[in-house]
Structure to design on (251 residues):
């Protein structure tokens, strides 16, 4: 019996069970299955798996790549994507989190066997001191990494990330609420998620992105910000939001 704990994140029960059966044949018995991003985050916080098999196309508010980015900020764990998609754009997105590998559906026992043995061997034999090493600091692709420049009138105005409270969508427009003024521009929330660094900002509802450093207190339903504003938390987003924060709760 092998002691490593493996998490399968897959919303198709038949595929999840297929992977589980193969792993059990390989003598892995500590196996958990999650069918959504929120459920996966709960399992990760509770059990801290040694390996994750993850479908890219998950139902819900986050796909497997977005979930992978959240997980990498939680724990240092190898992620293997299981997917029927070979689209270069998807592969390029997935490369951002440095996955341990890809398995393309339909797969067989040998595919899973080779991948799990290689990935876990690499994890076990990493140089001393690499396990539990702190995550690499956020690396921005831009020369200015503490601010964004927003076009207002005929000029681009510098806005420090620390001065942004939240972003609210209204149709095909968004309003960026900041310390000094508000900016309303024609952008989608998806565009804003890509422009704002994910270690500082998080989408907490279909129409809201918050600056995590501006949170004063929160519950399962709403977030109160330091400027006095209150933002509602979407039910599908709550666990992803909670995973980004260092919290202390009763045992």
């Amino acid at each position: 019996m092998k002691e490593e704990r493996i998490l399968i994140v897959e919303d198709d029960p038949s595929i999840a069970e297929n992977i589980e059966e193969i792993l059990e044949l390989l003598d892995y018995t500590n196996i958990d299955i999650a069918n959504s991003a929120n459920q996966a985050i709960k399992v990760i916080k509770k059990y801290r798996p040694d390996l994750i098999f993850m479908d890219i196309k998950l139902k819900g508010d986050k796909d497997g790549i977005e979930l992978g980015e959240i997980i990498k900020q939680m724990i240092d764990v190898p992620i293997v994507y299981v997917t029927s998609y070979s689209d270069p754009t998807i592969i390029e997105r997935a490369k951002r989190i440095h996955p341990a590998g890809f398995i393309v559906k339909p797969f067989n026992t040998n595919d899973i066997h080779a991948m799990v043995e290689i990935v876990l061997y690499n994890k076990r034999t990493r140089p001393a001191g690499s396990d539990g090493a702190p995550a690499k600091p956020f690396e921005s692709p831009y020369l200015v990494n503490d601010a964004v420049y927003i076009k207002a009138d005929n000029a681009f105005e510098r806005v420090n990330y620390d001065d942004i409270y939240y972003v609210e969508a209204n149709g095909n427009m968004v309003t960026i609420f900041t310390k000094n003024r508000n900016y309303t521009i024609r952008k989608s929330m998806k565009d804003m998620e890509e422009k704002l660094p994910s270690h500082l900002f998080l989408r907490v509802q279909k129409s809201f992105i918050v600056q995590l450093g501006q949170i004063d207190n929160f519950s399962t339903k709403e977030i109160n910000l330091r400027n006095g504003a209150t933002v509602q938390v979407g039910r599908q987003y709550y666990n992803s939001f909670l995973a980004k924060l260092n919290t202390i709760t009763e045992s």
